Each structure stands twice: as C-alpha cells, then as structure tokens.
Amino acid sequence: MTYLEERLKELPTPTYPNFAFKTTATDPSGKTAARCGLLSTPHGDMETPAFIFCGTKATVKGLTPKQLRDAGTQIILSNTYHLLLQPGSELVQEQGGLQEFTGWHGPMLTDSGGYQIFSMGHGSVSNEIKGKRRAGKEGGEGKPHEGGREGGKDEGWQKSLLKIDEEAAIFRSYVDGSKKTLSPESSIETQRGLGADIILTLDECTPFHVEKKYTEESMERSHRWEMRSLMEFIRGDDGKQSLYGIIQGGVYPDLRALSTAFVNGHAFFGAAIGGSLGQNKTQMYDIVALTAKQLRKDRPIHLLGIGGVRDIFHGVRQGIDSFDCVHPTRIGRHGCALVRAHYWDEVDSSSSSSSSPREHVDLSKARFKHDPRPIDTSCGCETCQNYSRAYIHHLIKANELLGGSLVSLHNVFFMNRLMAAIRRAIPAGTLDEEEKKWCHTSCIKALSCSTTDSALNPPPSPLTPVIAIVGTALQL
Asked: Which of these is catalytic: 27, 324, 362, 376?
C-alpha cells in the first residue's frame, strides 16, 4: 500500500447523500449495454443518456439559460481552468455559486482543468487538432470538426505552461500574465467554490506522440493526482457535490484495464473516460467499448469530449450515460447546422451535387441564398419555426451575431431531441432503426460494435499520429 493509499484509508468514505443513480431500462435484446437511467443531483434530476453542453466560461456562447432550458437542456458544463483565471472562484462563490451567478438553475458539471494543462504543454498537438485541421474534410465544408473540450488554443497559440511535476502545474495566466498553480487540491478547492453538482479529478492528458512508457507514467501520475483530489474532496465534503474519477491509459488495453480497475476501486460517484482514444474511429470505438465494459455498472459513466452523432450511438451501445462536447455550439457559431438523415433525401439533387451526406450542413454556402425553407422541416426549435435558410445565410455572410446564435439554438435543440429519441428507443429495442433516422445510411460505416478487445488494432508506434484525443476527437 502506497503512502497516498494509507492516507486515503484514514479518511471517511464519501456517501454522496444528495446524489443517486439508477438504471431505469436496458436493451431488451441483451445484445448491447445500452441503458436508460436517472441521475439525481441537488439541482435536479437528469435522464440518461444525456448530452452536456459546454458553457466553458460560465456561458454557452450566444445563448441564454432560458433558451437552453426551453430547448430541452438538462445540464451544462463549465471549466475550472478558465474560471480560475477570470473571474475567480471566490467571486463566483460570493455570488452563490455557478447556478446563481449564471441564472442556470439546474445540474452543472465542471471540468478539472486537466485538458487545458495538456494544451498548454503540447500546443502544437492541440493546435493541429483544434486549429490547423479545421479547414478541410474533417470538419466538412471548411468548418470546425466535432472535437471538443472547449478552451484549447488555436492559431497564435503561445506556450504558457512553465512547469509540470508531481506536485502541480505552474503556468502563466492568459488574462494578466501572472503565474498560477493548478494542483489536485487547488482544482478541487476551485470547483468547490464554483459549486457545480458534478466535479472531476485533476488528470494529465498525454499527447499522441509519446511512447507507451510515458503514457504509463502519466497514467500513474493521474492516479496519484486522483487520490489527492479524492482526499481534498473528502476534507471539504458537505454533500452538495459528487466526484468522478477519470480513466486514462491511451490506446493500450492493459493500461486501460489498470486505470479502470483503479477508478472502480476508489470511492468516486461516477467514472469519466478520458485520454487518447486512437488513430481512427475504429480504434476509438474499440477503446471506448473495451473501457466501458470493464467499468462498474452501479455508477454513471461519462465520455469526455465526444459529440458526433454516430459516436453517440456507438457510445450508448457500450453503456455510456452522458457525453459532452463543444461541437454543436461551436459549429453553430460558424453557420453549420446539424441535420437528420431525411435532409439529404429532400434536397434538390442539382444543388447538392457537391455535397455528400454528413451530420451537418454549412448555411453560408451560396446554394442557401434563395432557400425559403427552415433548416429542418421536422424540427420544432425556435429557429426552424421562425427563420428561413435564406435569412440565416444572409446573417452568416454579414457576420451578424444573430446568425450564429440561431444556428447554435437549433443545434442544441437537435442534440436534446436526439438524446430523447435514444432514451425512447433503448427500452423499445429500436436503437438501430433510430440511428438510421439521424445518420444517413451512407454515413453509417461498417464499424464493429464488439465489446471485446479482439478487434483492437496494435498500438501505434511512437511516431504514429494518434489524433483521436478525448476533447479533440476528429471525424475521419
């Protein structure tokens, strides 16, 4: 038993008295691990599977809390790193916590800041994934891809991480240039001040260009940080928050198994799957399936930073209960609207000859200039009920803020509608049929949904780019 384990054993085990998670339905065929559940928090209940929208700096960009709620949103996310720098957790706590501060009176989650440490230390990697590769096939029609824990650096990135060691990460604030420290203890302390219902342990996200030895060492450091996070959580536990542990291990099945066992064996309320997931979608799906299969089923399971429609259907089949990603609102701000499969069957063939079916459509394209139809004729969102593609096209081309807000609102409604449909399909045993309504058949690739590790590709060499990193997963 290590020193940290001995110290942890001396502390009381958290009981999370104001939280509960129960499974309410499962796949009747037994062929998948898909399940519906109810997650109860001090600020309300959340039906699962659920999608968590990213309000990184205490706001979902361009949308009000009322608009989010009216669109069916159950829970939103904010980020510890950014709020630590501005306005500071002390001010948020003074104002009554994030719910009172923002006007969002519902469940909230805060990210620990671990991904931002990664992006500060390995900016070239994050920049390649989240910035340089935005134009082109990955995002579709020259727009951002679906990756996304908000807050990574794009063009103009400058390395601000000064030091990272066993104790903490020391970095320079992008707000005022001052030196800041983020440790497992200070991350939990900051999240306690922010007051979100669900908080995460501090972890280290490894880049794609490292060897297995470094991935293992980083995972072990993350485990030590998670124990320190848990100890700090217990010391200040007042029953108002719950703590999730994070699984690391990269693309290596043996490391994933070790990390899963670690999280299963400690007193976390839930588990979040993090880290590098692979060099393509097939490998990403295999890693997610392998990891989810080994996690405890009496706890909620969250998949960090994944938000593509096909990715969600795959994750749901593995028993994932919640997802978060900036994808829906980020692409919305750039004029890209999420569309269901029938969109591609309804478009005029002459105007769509240059566009193959995908999960979103770029409304800035010239073909929408004279289009009087709503984004989606079957959608009940405020945008589709009141505005045409032609009007939104005009707003986007004119760089009017309303354009991005309207498309973001549609995308939020779309994602909530998607998750509600999935929750109905699971107990009905119609998940496959439901997927075809949301993903065009030409987009549904023949990827194995096996939950065994036999389909895993061999781990990449140190020089192989592993570009599906949780928080920045690319659609290949």
From this structure: 324
Is residue 7 classed as helix, strand or coil in its secondary structure? helix
Identify the bridge partners of residue 172 per DSSP, sorted by sequence position.
Answer: 179
What interhelical angle do 401-428 and 389-397 show, nearest 10?
Answer: 130
CA nearest neighbour of 305 among 98, 106, 112:
112
Enter the DSSP assignment of 60: -
Which residues are CB-contacts of 141 (< 8 A; sequence separation ≥ 6)?
336, 355, 361, 362, 365
The owner of tokens 């295999």 is 286
Say whether pTM exceeds 0.85: yes
352-372 pLDDT, tens digit each: 445 688 999 999 999 999 999
Other CB atoms within 10 A of residue 301 CB: 27
SS3 content of the chain, % helix, strand, coil (to 5): 40, 15, 45
Residues found in the chain: 476
Among all chains, which residue has been given the structure tokens 């770029």? 362
Q: What is the DSSP string of 40-54?
A: EETTEEEEESEEEEE
Contacts of 194 (CB under 8 A, 6+ apart): 78, 80, 83, 89, 92, 93, 97, 98, 110
Which tokens is 137 given? 């096939």
Cα distance between residue 118 and residue 126, in whole Å = 8
Cis previous bond, 87, omega within 30 = yes
Query: Is the bond preceding 49 in cis, omega lying within 30 degrees of 0?
Result: yes
Q: What count of Cα atoms within 13 Å lies in the side-chain half-sphere of residue 359?
A: 28
CB atoms within 10 A of CB 147: 30
111 counts as catalytic? yes
**Is 324 one of the annotated active-site residues of the chain?**
yes
- Residues of the chain short of pLDDT 70, as ranges, are 1, 120-158, 207-208, 348-355, 444-476
Question: What's the token pair of residue 151?
Answer: 């807050």
